[in-house]
TrEMBL record:
The chain crosses the membrane at residues 12-32. This is LPS heptosyltransferase. GO terms for cellular component: cytosol. Keywords: Glycosyltransferase, Membrane, Transferase, Transmembrane, Transmembrane helix. The keyword Transferase applies. Gene3D superfamilies: Glycogen Phosphorylase B. One of its GO terms (molecular function) is ADP-heptose-lipopolysaccharide heptosyltransferase activity. It comes from Nonlabens marinus S1-08. GO terms for biological process: lipopolysaccharide core region biosynthetic process.
Amino acid sequence: MQKPQRIVVLRLSAMGDVAMTVPVLLAMRRLYPEVELISLSRKRFFPILQHIPGITLIEAAVNEQHKSILGLRRLAKEINEYQPDAIADLHNVLRTKILRLFLGGLSKAVIDKGRKEKKRLVNDPHFFQPLPTTFERYQRVFEDLGLPVHVAMSDVLSRQAIPQKAHSLIGDHECRWIGLAPFAAHDAKALSLQKAKELVAAIMNIDNVKVLLFGGGAAEAKELELVAGTMSNVFNMAGRMSFKEELQLLSNLDAMVSMDSGNGHLAAMYGIPVITIWGNTHPHAGFAPFLQPEENQITPNLEQFPLIPTSIYGNKVPKGYEKVMDTVDCDRVVERLKELLF
């Protein structure tokens, strides 16, 4: 099999999944510098990908000119202008399936999302075991194209310059910066407002730290204001900076505490230590942030909640599991933070 020299990589969303492509694409650049990578994604995710050396970015404007079948045909023509010889589909959704049809004649490899084994992990209590990680699934796509990939600890992005706006909001980096993203797309993966306040108060017992709160959207920004309250050295960063500036700031954290959500993956792609607090989902499904050890995975008591994971994405909550996140042991999080920081 002739190795491809110009690969179109398809991963349109979501934010965390796009972030998880970064270590694998960095490994591709390290192992195969002669292979050109062309990444197709939504424009709002370009800041995640733009610092990968030598990468070419193509916008998938799926709500505008690339909407509908005709729009995807137009997009396929735009992709063909780059003369690719292979497609690595890391998404495998309807849009990318249609694009693969329009891009006929190219070598193609498609991610195996492991839907059957993930369904079994949720439904079969006797099948509680780690599944292949998302990174491993991405790697297998390139292996199917004849390009074996093995990510290394060095396959992370370099820290960026701290944006001036961050300095004006939180001051200089004279003490340890701890990021906290207490919310998520589904309530089953998010801390309650009260629990988030409790966790912040516990973290502030660590000497010489500032807590930077991260979140997305106006509703979360308002809740984070309540979390920060009047505590000194606790700063709500949501809505204060551009996404590019947020990434620059994230890259300079000393540690990140996140739920099972995108912010943990964004921090991990810069090599930041990430503690993940899991609720009704579980790291066995393969979505833990890049190179984060088991000690960084804070999971509920499975004897108390034996049905976990109740779903893969946190969107299904059986009766009695609505308040799993309220059982988080804040002291356990703080002790792990101390181990990482000192």
